[in-house]
Amino acid sequence: MDKVKNFFSEHDHLAKLLGVELIEVGPGTAKARMQITDSLKNGVGTVHGGAIFSLADFVFAVAANSHGQIAVAISASITFMKASSSGFLTAEAREVSKNFKLGTYIVEIRDDVGDIVAMFTGMVYRKKENLPF
Question: What distances in angstroms separate CA 22 from CA 29, 32, 33, one per listed residue?
Fold first, then answer.
């Protein structure tokens, strides 16, 4: 799992730009956090939905690719439940189903007190190629 963690930590440039820290990776799982900064806030002072989606999408990608086979998103949706304006957001992805071609994942995004800020679901298509390591 260290190879997967290092690969995505080094090669996902948007995650780096947003300050996302990949905490852990397991088979079909991933966890990351992002500090809420002013540059991630929308016009009303809460975390921009696009930043939250990007955090969720990142752990989704890591979890889906944790098996070493390239997996690309074919659908994703998010539901926002609570606004946040300070501290950290933590996203945890887990695999719900996996077969030869498809995988389904759920991501929970929580604030510092453990409240759910958003729920993300995504599906991937598994390509024939493996990650380049």
Answer: 11, 4, 7
